[in-house]
Structure formats: structure tokens, C-alpha cells
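SAMPLE LOG
Freezer: B-3
Tube label: C17
Construct: single chain, 308 aa
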Amino acid sequence: MALCDIFDHKKILDEYLTAFLTEKKEALSDVNSWGTESIARLLPFIAAGKSVRGCLALFSYDMLVKHAKVKLALPLGAGLELIHAGALIHDDIMDGDDTRRHMKAMHIQFQNFSPDKTFGESMAINVGDLCYFLAFEQLSFLKSSHVSQIISLASREFAAVTIAQQFDIASSYLSHQSTKDEIISLYRTKTARYTFSLPLMMGALLANVDDKTLKTLEAFGEAAGILFQIRDDELSIIGDPKKTGKPLGSDEKNHKQTLIANKTKAQIAVIKKQYEDKAVQNIQTLSIDEKHKQALMELVTFCSTRET
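STRUCTURE (predicted):
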């Protein structure tokens, strides 16, 4: 098993989300035509993503259950991808970014109807909100005695992401100079736990594992996710927009306080090595087969060196 086996879950997840959103397109059209318009724009937007969170949730469940029926975990993956889509739509408004996932940002798309900036932003905010509500509808579809625990965990983590986003915004506008520890804490809360720890833990809860395994996956996710965010910062400076789907220099434009802006290249390399070692150590303690360990090892390399 290799990294591709994690992301191979995207196909079934995309098919599931497309069916769900198509059904919602028809249902929301009964409210008014904006329901149809919103879902029509969400469909390609969600499909264009890497689906890291959704794929990790499905992978985690598959990794921890013998003869797993991955379709039982699809509402987990779908809920995570919908929430992520909503967060990205809102982020692009806050950051003033015009492109996302190789297409116009949602608020820019709605300016096709009116050139007024407020109109586009207002409509996109509502589409982002819609994603959140659809996500929790998906989580309610789970057939498990751990549904309430899964939803509670998700709610706590998303609340933390929101507060971390406020810190990120405040650091950009106010005179506070963030320390290395504050920046790492931001990475941990805004990206690492939400992108890696949460989906891995949600899949594990659905698989009914013990607390030790949950804690190990949580720690692994934090380490891998911090690597992922550091690489994201690097790509904001040196990445190819044709590969990333995002404009260069967005962090600098918005005065984001990042490790890249505060540390030398050599210092960043040392920090990345520390988190690579932490991630690997946690992989080795998991009671899983070697093929799944190999997939997680390749995930660590992907987080540290990815080009997209």
C-alpha cells in the first residue's frame, strides 16, 4: 500500500458527494433559484480539491477495521469535505484572494451577477454557511453508537479552528509580533488537527478503537499537519500557481506571520526534521499492518515536499 491508496478514496467520495449535492440541488430549487445556483457552483469546487480530509477519514476506518465496508464511512468524508469547502470560501473573502482550486474564488464567481463587491462576498458567505449545514446533515447519517462522540469532537475542533483564524487575522492587522511557539500553535490548531488529527480520529471512532490508538493518531496528525502547513507557506512563495491553484504571495500580501517570514531556510529545515521524526515515531507505535504504515510514511513525505 502506498500514498496513492489513501487518495484513491477520492473517486468514491466524489461520486457520493456528487449524488448528495445533486439531490440537494433539486430540493433547494424549491426554495428559490439561488439554491440551484449555489449547488451548481459547489459541485465543481468540491470535486477540484485534493480531498485530503475526506480521504484520511476513509483510510483511517479502512486501516482499523478488518474487511471494512468503506461506504459506511462515506458520511464522515463527505462532512469533512463540505466543511472544508465552506472554510475555504470564507477564507478567500477574508484574504481577498481571487482564485482557488484553479478557478475563480466563490465570491468572484458571484460577481457575474453584479459587479458590486459586497454582493459577491455576501452570496459567497451564504454558500459557505450552506456547506456547514449540509456537512452536519451528512454526519447525522452515520450508523454508529459513536455518532454523538464524533459530532462532539468535530464541533470542538471546528470551534478551535475559528478562534485560530481570528488570531491569524489579528496578527496580520495588529502590531503583535508572533513568537515561534505562537505560530506553531496556530499551525497546530488551524491546520494540523483539523486536516489530519480530526479525520484520522473520526475514522478511528467509527472503527471503535481504544483510547491509546486515538491518542497516537492524534499526535501523528499534529506532526504531519504542521509539516503540511510549513510546506504551504513555502509554496506561497515558491510554488507554481498552475499546480497549487492559488496565487503566489498571498501570505505576504496579507501580512501573515509565518515561520518562513521569521526563520532562515536552515532553521526551517531543522523544524521540519523535528516534526518528521515525531510523525514517524507515532507511526511505529500503531498496531497496524506494514502496508498501512508505509502509506502513512509516504504521507509524511508528501506533507513535507508536495508541489500542489
